[in-house]
Each structure stands twice: as structure tokens, then as C-alpha cells.
Amino acid sequence: MTRLVHERWGGGPAPTGRGEVVLERVARRHGWSVEPLPVSGATSYTTAAWRDRFGGPLGWTLLTGHVAAVSTREPEFGLPPTFHLTSNGPLHDALSADGQLTLPDAGWLTGDLTPGELAALLTGPAGGGWEAYSVRYWRPRTRAEVLFNHWD
């Protein structure tokens, strides 16, 4: 799925851990705090809670590699997962301005997979075929369900 993100939104594979470094840098630059949340089960992403300099909530980030999304509420685990993604607000704007993460549009992420995208996922070599197997088994509807999942 990250290949499809890069085809649409640019960027490419990044060294492991680079995304977390970007989150820390953006938080320091703005005087905010970012706190990783505990991983729940086998997830393909990490979640972090953001607070402004006065302790007020700014939002949450979902991060897989260096592909990120901003959520207005803490992610809810379940099948299918529930997403509250946004493409605006101070947190999204700050991450976007930094320019180091790929931040696909929330509408695109929560949109249904196209037949072409589904075909690419089912025939792609990602994870030695694990992604194709998982897509067949879990039957995700949206791009966000593929990127930010609990089956990895």
C-alpha cells in the first residue's frame, strides 16, 4: 500500500525510525509534546498523542514508516477500525510544513479502494506476499484500513 501512496503523493521508502524523528522535531519546534501510545496487538503503525504547550490536546498521529495521518480522536480498534482523520488544523499544518512525512489527504485515505488499487495489492510482492494474503483474508474497504491495520 505504501507503494500506492508514493505513486499518488510522492516520496519513497524511508529508513526505519525516520518518521518518529520527524514527529519529535516538529513537537520541539512548536513547543508541543508528542507521546507514543502503547501498541495494541499486531498493528502496522504507531500512534502518538499530541498536546500544545499548555497541555491542551492537538490530535493524534498514525504513522507507518514515513506515511502519516492526523486524527481528531484517539484511534478506535476494531474490525473494521474507525478513523477520524483530518487534513487541516495546527497539527496537520505543522507536519505538512515540515515536508519530511508523506501526509495523504484524509478524504483519499478514507475513500474506498479502487478496483485497480485492490488488484495491485492482491498481486504485489509486499511483505513476501503477506500483504496480498492479508487483503484477501481481512477484506479492507478503504486505503486507511490497509495502511493502518491490526493484522500485521
Structural class: alpha+beta
Quaternary status of these chains?
single chain
Main-sheet strand order equals: 1-2-3-4-5
- Please state the average pLDDT score: 87
Biggest sheet, in brief?
A: 5 strands, antiparallel
Portion in beta strands: 15-25%
Count of helical regions: 7
Low-confidence stretches: none
Distance between the termini: 13 Å
Radius of gyration: 15 Å
Helix-strand sequence: HHEEEEEHHHHH
Shape label = globular
Number of E strands:
5
State the share of residues found in helices, binned by percent: 25-40%
Characteristic key phrases:
152 residues; alpha+beta; five-stranded antiparallel β-sheet; 7 helices; 16% strand
Topology record:
Layout: H1 2-9, H2 18-30, E1 33-36, E2 46-51, E3 57-64, E4 67-71, E5 85-86, H3 90-98, H4 106-110, H5 115-123, H6 130-138, H7 143-147
Antiparallel strand pairs: 1-2, 2-3, 3-4, 4-5
